[in-house]
What we know:
The chain is an alpha+beta fold. The protein has one domain. It is built from four helices and three strands, in the order βααβααβ. It has helices at about 15-20, 30-40, 55-60, 80-90; strands at about 5-10, 45-50, 95-100. Strands 1-2-3 form a three-stranded mixed β-sheet, with helices on one face. Helix 1 packs across helix 2 (about 30-40). The longest helix has 12 residues, at about 30-40. The two termini are about 20 Å apart. This is RNase H type-1 domain-containing protein.
Amino acid sequence: xxxxxxxxxxxxxxxxxxxxxxxxxxxxxxxxxxxxxxxxxxxxxxxxxxxxxxxxxxxxxxxxxxxxxxxxxxxxxxxxxxxxxxxxxxxxxxxxxxxx
Length: 100
């Protein structure tokens, strides 16, 4: 496959626990796929991204798109996330390392 390092990031603590402790037998296809990838590479990292660090993505995901699964491009950042972007630019990072 040619991959030497894999980094998995999630904002869901439960997901990180599934990947770490129950990934091989999980009924969730994505968790099993991550487990398979972790077995193929030389080095893996799993990061839990705390919600404070993911607020912009969360806010963008709540903006209604015209149709399900359609692409919505913004020429400028929506006004609803301006303060969150400023916070990210000048605030603290909240990334937490779960496992190497």
